[in-house]
Amino acid sequence: MTAVKVFVPIDAAARSVGADEVAAAVQAEAKRLGVAIELIRTGSRGMFWLEPLVEVATAAGRVAYGPVTAADVPGLFAAGFLQGGKHPLLHGKTEELAFLKRQQRVTFARVGVVDPRSLRDYEAHGGLRGLRAALAMAPAQIVDEVMTSGLRGRGGAAFPAGIKWKTVAQQPPGQKYVVCNADEGDSGTYSDRMVIEGDPFLLIEGMLIAGLAVGADQGWIYLRSEYPDAEVALMAAIDMARREGLLGKSVLGSGRAFDLHLRRGAGAYICGEETAMLESLEGKRGMVRPKPPLPAIAGLFGKPSLIHNVMSLAAVPTIVEKGGAFHAGLGVGRSKGTLPFQLAGNVKHGGLVEVPFGMTLRELLYDFGGGTASGRPIKAVQVGGPLGAYLPPAKFDTPLDYEAFAQAGGMLGHGGIVVFDDTVDMKAMARYAMEFCAVESCGKCTPCRIGSTRGVEVIDQIAGPGPQVALLRDLCDTMTHASLCAMGGLTPMPVLSALDHFPEDFARGARARG
Amino acid sequence: MQPTADPGATPVPLTAAQRAAIDVAIAACRDLPGALLPLLHKLQEQLGYVPPASIPPIAKALGLSQADVHGVITFYHDFRTTPPGRHVVKLCRAEACQAMGCQRLEQHVQDRLGITFGQTSADGAVTLEAVYCLGNCALSPALLVDGRLQGRVSKERLDRVLDTCVHDGKEAQR
Predict the structure, then answer these.
(1) Which 381-400 residues of chain A touch chain B by CB within 8 A?
(2) Are the Cβ atoms of B96 and A15 closer than 8 angstroms?
(3) Which of A224, A461, B4, B47 is 20 to 30 Å apart from A297, CA to CA?
(4) Mind listing the domains of chain A with CATH numbers?
């Protein structure tokens, strides 16, 4: 009898609610019953309200049970879950679940499906096709495909990737770097973490292709220290890639060299800003550099550097494999391709939703998210991380694309969406935005370093319309226009959006939130 | 607040074990490009903190000024200059966790252990630190206890975490 395949996530979020205990219980129960199973640890499918989600490979496909606790496991075996047996936790075929079926997973196609610790599994599910294609192409051709794809930086700034690639490629030959920004510090975001833990070879492949295209033989990854599981997963994948000849002196026997350095951050949000990240990689305080020079010309250690977020690099293998036109065919307007949105906070069905640009925020919040976890009405959502705007329900019909969001006074950023119910005090959230900026400012420029502290003080003095509100707006104007980087420059976005959309919360003095 | 190292004060002299840990960290990292962060991580992994007296030997090994090293240690939230408790609990206080009431957890630790962020409980069991996002935002509130992520943290779950920290079999050793 062949062993039945059982899949339990090894993703940090799934582990945070007991996936390891469930995996151990499944092994123990199978042993006790003398049943042959093959337990495979995967990434997460990104349906976190169902974690730990256990899948079983049946003749009809993979079926899902969740959320499973270790105590549920004997009952699952008794119900015949190895054959997809009926049980209160059974949700049917995984691929048929509405939350997944309505998505178009490109970057996340393998996450939750494959064993992230197996390069063979990666290849068996379409991995390395992009790299093999790239090895047969001239560097300029690869850059052209990225240009055609219309890919824009997924880290938040949405800068056209092709222009960066071209700039770095055009620098004179010599030491160049591909730098991956895996300092995913925005609250409400976890897509980088999920890919690194669930499909790390995808990131490695993306960086390899980027290296071939721009003439870099070294890639550097700056991973935040708050992601210990991701570090373990990535280190294991890099080691395996070296052993298998994917990284090293001759990539897949091509004679072209590429290797990776993995560096751990040290708990500074500002190091997600690309020039602060470069300083940190060089072993210094994460102080923002003025631009110019652009990092594409003088970046890491003063050398030309192609800097991208994890999601941008993870989009590259598909673009090269299927052609830039495939990517450009998805999305709307100048927002091409898909964006992995992340539903977070007070949301009933929190998780990863990869869809082409263009869906409305409302569809995402209600059709996918199912409203709040508390069952109360949604009062506000913050889109795009701690520097993104707070939007009221009146703005929920805004389409999810870069330009539409800018027009609505917000930004998509890294695709994180944090949901708040009607118990939230928006003045407290505005105050927190300033406080966060004060804690995390690198201190190089005055508007950010001092302005954020003054901002907390001014908000504390607001009790209804009056001169303090005018002062806050004036301060925000200074921060927006005079800060060196997005930290001080965008902190006014959550502050002013809270003030503009929820003035009633600023009409009274401070209140404790419970 | 936790007493932090006064840069003007004479640092506590290093023990032999600390010197050995510094040597290990220097040997492992001195030849890396941009060596200081990996070196400090390596040192803190061994000792739980970066003793202020380690600054001169690190600076010398890397050809940096003591001010450079001090500047980096104090810039990053991760590096401590005083020993932590036996267990480090990092409680997320970013927006997604706020949306799920993490402030109540902060209050709960304060009520139970009498400490707030940056402090260590009187029995030396727990150091509480603030963290801004652990990437577990669909399972908020979240915390990290000794590097292990926890999600959907209720007061009851937090109590279980704190119980394991306090009653870890090392209570008598202090």
Answers:
(1) 382, 386
(2) no
(3) A224
(4) 4-101 (3.40.30.10), 125-328 (3.40.50.11540), 331-421 (3.10.20.600), 426-506 (1.20.1440.230)
